[in-house]
User: Which sequence fits this backbone?
């Protein structure tokens, strides 16, 4: 009977380092989600797809209504580079620098129409949105970008 108990224990000791290295390998990648938003000073109904972010958008941007224009996801190694196409001819390039204590340090470059709108560095926490205010649109609204590390 002792032999039966020792075999599973031996198997656990042999395979535990492999399982730990697989877990570590999956942590060396990060997914970044970006949502392109049009923010308006005109009161009105906001896009329902943004309901989880509306209070954050109002607090940071101080606009009245918000419409989602596009979204996308990108993956990158840590450290590494990735990009996200968000629609309307705009994209977000990101460079992951380091990840520690559930915080991801990134450098972001937001581009569209052959122009660079913004370059900035952020520290992202998984699931916590960061909001970037962007350029004005022809209709007087302002672009914004919600960035979330997943």
Assistant:
């Amino acid at each position: 009977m002792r032999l039966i108990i020792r075999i599973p224990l031996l198997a656990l000791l042999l395979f535990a380092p492999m399982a730990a290295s697989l877990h570590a390998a999956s942590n060396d990648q990060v997914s970044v989600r970006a949502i392109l938003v049009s923010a308006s000073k005109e009161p009105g109904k906001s896009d329902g797809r943004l309901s989880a972010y509306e209070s954050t958008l109002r607090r940071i941007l101080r606009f009245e209504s918000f419409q989602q224009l596009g979204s996308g996801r990108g993956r990158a190694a840590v450290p590494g580079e990735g990009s996200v196409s968000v629609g309307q001819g705009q994209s977000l390039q990101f460079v992951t620098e380091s990840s520690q204590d559930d915080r991801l340090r990134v450098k972001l470059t937001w581009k569209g129409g052959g122009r660079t709108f913004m370059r900035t560095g952020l520290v992202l926490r998984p699931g916590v949105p960061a909001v970037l205010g962007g350029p004005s649109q022809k209709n007087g609204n302002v672009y914004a970008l919600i960035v979330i590390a997943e």
